[in-house]
Structure prediction request, 160 residues.
Amino acid sequence: MGLLDFLFGRGKCPQCGTAGARKSQGQTRCPNPSCRYFDASLRQSADTPLEWRGDFSPASPFAIRYRNFRGEEKTFTAERLTLRRSRNHIVAQVAPTGTSISLSRDRIENLEEVERALPGVAESRPSGPSARERQVLGYHKKHKSSSPLYEKIRAKYPDW
Prediction:
């Protein structure tokens, strides 16, 4: 709320408390469509954000069934190419708005299908030694020594 809003009649609606309400000629006009003082001319003013347009349609749609924290079942239509995993969440761009949402993996009903649809997920062994194996290899190389574990790791990675 600005310093001089009282001069221009802007403030909160007395009925619903929505910011951006105006008083003019003894009447209250509110931008909230569920309020009894609603005035459509205030709906698209600079004070209120524009509504999302629903013009996004995925090129390769993928359905994600999700149960939210209230226990409601929801189905999201996501773009398959935008699916990605971020820690314990799946992030995807969904229709109709095209916004990216983050869904908890614990609440996704068809998690196996979603995991298979993730692009670039390869279940292969890393090409080089792990950090612990590199430590053992480096130690024995530096000290020009050997151990059964070193020999086992050396056989596993002969070119290292």
Q: What stands out?
A: The helical segments are 5-8, 111-117, 131-143, 148-156. The first helix runs from residue 5 to 8.
